[in-house]
User: What shape does this take?
Amino acid sequence: MPLMTLICLFLSFGSVLRIVFFVLVLLIYSHNGLCNQVAVSSAPLKYDPSGSNGWYPYYIDGPTPTGIAVEVVQNILKKAKIQGQPTNLPPKRTQFALKNGLIDFDLVNPDWLPDEEDKSYVVFSKPIFAIKEHVVYLPDQTPADNFLTENQGFKPIMGVVRGYYYHDNHLFISFEFNSEKEVIEALKKRRVPFGISGDLPALYWANKLNVDIVLGPVHSDGFLHMRLRKEHQHLLPNINNAIDQLKRDGELQRIINKYTTDL
Assistant: This one.
């Protein structure tokens, strides 16, 4: 009802009726606000917070998965008053599921995405936390200065995780493994001379597998974002506000510290 119409009706009533009218208007608007709030949270968003099963400490598989990515997403959705329905898919399957609407969002660093990757069907949240990956290798496998550039003399063989995005995959020959753990195992066994891994997963698995590795040239250095299907972009203000609050309250750093102190 237009505001001027409400004011005219209000002024035309006696004092008692004015009070009754005022209470009714409050109830109506409160009800509409409650309905809108329920509408935001009533349809759970299906999502996959996992990378590979070796994406430690971001995703730690188990009966109840934990890790930085898992806890951060749970906190964002809770603060944004959005219900979530997590699942765990292999990386390549996750890409297919997002494109075909089988899940509603995932987590990605836009710097991972090749230039030709279709982004028309998604929107990105504010950056959540920094994430970095390196070329990794054994100490006796130092790469040349022009490594992974257009000027390199040949394409090196590179251990990568099957289904992950690699923005410069035309510069190397991919040797695919199922997880970061398997990439580090392959380096230890000298099945591949180089690999690509996040810094924290690489350090964790090198320690667990008792192998000395070098975190070499930075392969990507950016921030993890929520990548949301465009039909849900009306939820972005809630999500971005939740991300801001998580950072402002120190909760984000607490979660990160919980899983990285030993690393």
